[in-house]
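Continuing from the previous page...

OK, I double-checked the sequence for Cytochrome b-c1 complex subunit 7 against my notes and this is the correct one:
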Amino acid sequence: MASSFLQRLVDPKKNFLARLHMKSVSNRLRKYGLRYDDLYDPMYDLDIKEALNRLPREVVDARNQRLKRAMDLSMKHEYLPDDLQAVQTPFRSYLQEMLALVKRERAEREALGALPLYQRTIP
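Thanks. Re-ran it with the corrected sequence; updated structure tokens here:
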């Protein structure tokens, strides 16, 4: 009951405020040429780091280029030109499937009592 309520609350198709928030986030990401998956930090979550390691090199390179461009634009206090903003796809996912696979594998390893595949170390 509560989970269906929460699903309905955050679903942009069913909730006006969620749709408004999604549009606002989309506009902000377009200004810098980012995708939503670019916002995940591999230093914060080791599952994200593992998922990025498993992705093809071209996908990771494109992500790094988008992040560099966004930082450069931010430092210059500029935005992408309007014609480039129009072709951006901020919610096209490239990380979610691999991230879900990594999380399932980790959960399976924990359920079987195996040692973790990776552990956080202090740099």
